[in-house]
Amino acid sequence: MEGFSDNVFGFALTLLVISLEVPRTFNDLLETIRGSIAFAFVFILLFIFWQEHYKFFRRYGLENNTVLWLNAALLFVILFFVYPLKFLFYYLVKAFSGMARTVTMSNGSIVPAIENYQWTSLMTIYGLAFVTIYAIFALLYLHAYKKRNDLELNGIETLMTQSSIVGCCANCSIGLLSIAFVTFGGFQYAAISGLTYMLIGPAQTTIGFFFRKKVNLIQETPTVSE
Q: pTM of this prediction?
């Protein structure tokens, strides 16, 4: 299951590559460099998803039917997520680097890469995929928590599992908040919708601090020998 999953993650990264051709002009080279910047951002995000996946299987080693189907759903959403990610970050890199945000169609006409009103749909698609990915991770950790007796998890390992569940649910909440901004505020709130994801860092730090205190309390509690 892990081998197949790693292949899917590798395939997802392959989908991000636009072209392997050598740039023929300096402008082509600049375009490739700007594309590499966008690729780096998307790569980091996919790496975070892979790391969460890797951590789960290394911690618990569960390979039953529940994990099989949840893992399949996760991989499906990640593959679906690649193109919205690619489009969004490549567009943002072009916007911040001062490049034209237009596309030349096959008939020679030049059109905007995205219309203002379409930002609502784009951020909603992005948010739904993000929420779904972390909802599946939450379900995977919840399944492991229910199996804690079979897995013989100790107190610290159980707390780590609970921390992962809460952390995934927090990310889901942030994603839903982002969707709410563009759903009720319209495309004018697209920037705020994107900036909402910056709450992930403080939220995860707070959750980590809270559960770390509990772990430290267990470690400092003396074991009573019979």
A: 0.87
Residue pair 218/157 in contact (Cβ under 8 Å)? The answer is no
**Exposure pattern of 85-114 as b/e (b: 16+ CB <10 Å)?**
bbbbbbbebbeeeeeeeeeeeeeeeeeeeb
Residue 27 and residue 196: Cα distance in Å, rounded?
Answer: 34
Query: Tens digits of per-residue pLDDT, 95-127?
Result: 777 666 777 677 777 778 788 889 999 999 999
Angle at 127 between CA 81 and CA 60, to 5 degrees: 65
Q: Where are the domains of the chain?
A: 2-220
Burial of 84 (0-12, 13-18, 19+ CB in 10 A): middle
pLDDT in tens, 9-67: 888 888 776 555 566 777 767 777 777 787 888 889 999 999 999 999 999 988 899 99
Helices (H) and strands (E) in the chain, counts: 8, 2
Find, among 220, 180, 212, the residue nearest to 196 by Cα.
180
Give the Cα separation of 193 and 181 in Å (integer). Answer: 6
Nearby residues of 180 by Cβ (< 8 Å), 6 or more positions away: none
Beta bridge partners of 103: 111
Report CA-CA distances (Å) from 119 to 89, 149, 152, 192: 13, 47, 48, 12
